[in-house]
TrEMBL record, chain A:
Pfam families: BPD_transp_1. Residues 70-259 form the ABC transmembrane type-1 domain. It comes from Aquibium pacificus. It comes from the Bacteria. Belongs to the binding-protein-dependent transport system permease family. Keywords: Cell membrane, Membrane, Transmembrane, Transmembrane helix, Transport. Coiled coil: none annotated. The chain crosses the membrane at residues 12-32, 72-99, 119-143, 195-214, 234-263. It is a multi-pass membrane protein. PROSITE patterns: ABC_TM1 (PS50928). This is ABC transporter permease. It is found in: Cell membrane. Its main location: membrane.
Amino acid sequence: MLDLKHIPAGALLGLIITALFLFTAIFAPLLAPYGGGQIVGGVWEPMNAEHWLGTDNLGRDLLSRMIYGARITIFIAVLATALSFGMGAILGFTAAVVGGWFDTIMSRFVDLLMSIPTLIFGLVVLSVLPSTVVTLILVMGILDSTRVYRLSRAVAADINVMDFVEAAKLRGEGMGWIIFREILPNALSPLISELGLRFIYAVLFLSALSFLGLGVQPPSADWGGMVKENKEGIVFGISAALIPAAAIAALAISVNLVADWILNRTTSLKGGRG
Amino acid sequence: MGGSPILRMISQRIALGGGLLLAVSALIFAGTQILPGDVAQSILGQSATPESLANLREELGLNQPAIVRYFVWLGGVMTGDLGTALTTRQDIATTLLPRLWNTLFLAFWAAIVSVPLAILLGLLAVRYRNGPIDKAISGFALASTSLPEFFIGYLLIFFFAVKMQWFPSISTVYDGMPFLEKLRAIVLPATVLVLVVLAHMMRMTRAAILNVMQSAYIETAELKGLGALDIIRKHAFPNAIAPIVNVVMLNLAFLVVGVVVVEVIFVYPGMGQYLVDHVAKRDVPVVQAVGLIFAAVYISLNIIADIAAILANPRLRHPK
């Protein structure tokens, strides 16, 4: 099914870089030359043979911190995306299949949530919640599930009226069967490229929160938090803060390239249905 | 008599927006009540003494049920009383107003630059569809939707404020500051905002015009032998105005939110920075007030987008 020769150059580059980031995140402790919180030199040392990316605002090795940061950033973003997808898709499918009051209440509530900018509502909620990784994942996942809900509901509403679903209903299958065995497999392809976009959004959202000081709390830091730690150096011409910021951008762009390619592939596979 | 159905639609839309805003106020209020414990505990932390807890509860009115507190708060908001900040003891409304103006000032200039630029680039992309200009524009769009604001922001500061020293790295503005100096102070933050919304706005403009370009009357114009620019100018653009206005308004709403991060990057004394500072300090009344204002601006721009779409649609202007 996957023909590597026909992957466009952009998507291939995206795949390779995404895979590299994932590899770094998984094997962080093996790859990092120093510990994430270990002070190994002076403050903001420039790049040199010993510290490839220099040191940060407290004299920690920037490369090691970037590697551990990759782990934290990707870990939180993956879990938040998984939560938003699981919740959004199941609720969206259920709303489409059940209809009636459940659909009405859920859909109006999602409309209401989406009428407040996500970042603003996230900040409102985080002003009373404890700043832990679990809270972050829950807040990001739940707020983002509104978008997945809308898409899944729309896709499932299309599938729900097809003959094979009618047949399944007539032979008396339960709701779980209809949702997971009939609708889910047929709704997968439009949802998968959305998965990439939601992941990018989760990375950017997490980075923004940490940059504002409301995400991952020190001493551990994701890339957004590292930008915050090193931002004071910018005015002295020290570029340490730009490195984690560029890493966020590189991750987002490469996942975007892959998602774009999958989107184009699936729309062409769908043929006339557009 | 063309006006009446339009007026009816517009007033319906505004009423709907009002209702939505009311619901949003309830949601924002509820958002600060979702803890199993109470707000006082989370503000003061684990080490709080029972006395200070009781005092804070008294002050926040936590001894009353949430629904009563909501209506007291809502009544205050309606009469322009946003309450008092817990941390500074200052009246929120008087602190907020100059900051709101600063935020709108920044957003206004970002909009003035980005809107015409986005429409122009969108038109160019359609004119030279699938050519190098179109490719470059969509490549730029892909990059700019993936770049975090602070990456663009610090990159600009690094090169234009620190290396070249053309602009200040911290965008201080104050009352009575000369207008031109104020403009110079916001060049960099406004540029970040422009770059952030430009791509999206441009892409949607391109899509809106392309959509129109596929209609039968465009084909007729082509067959008449009109040049591509003439077709876009005379036939496509007027019909694409409604979706474009819609796109512009949606992106302005987006811009108002993007302001939060940009203000923190440039230490700009606006509403976004005020919000972020007080989220960290767990100053709930301030967070509720600023959150509500952000949501109100966002919803208003969305309503204006709808109204503009209604007004720009000739079929609705001239009902049968």
